[in-house]
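fyi for ur records
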Amino acid sequence: TREILGMSYLLIAPSIEESFLMTALEGFFMRVPVARSKTGGYDEMKDICLGDDAMDVKAWSGILNELAESEGELYSDMTDRAYDSAMSRFTSRHMTEKILDVYFSVI
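which gave:
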């Protein structure tokens, strides 16, 4: 996965029913722009990835065309923000701390 994502210009993850898209986090950590469906968890990351209806082929084509025309540079700012966000919000340490906070708040 690391080699493939490292060579990629875009991670595309259309899904009709996916909950919190862990694949998107892999893209964020690898500094690859992410285009994903507006399914579960999208609101948590809509400022750091592209989102559209999974069945809207025209919209997905538009994303690909824009990226190709910009030679991969179009989403560099978003990719930097996504990486920073992933490093501060989605590391295993941070997520464990959040789980423990919830756990201790109910006992």
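The radius of gyration is 15 Å. thats all i got for now
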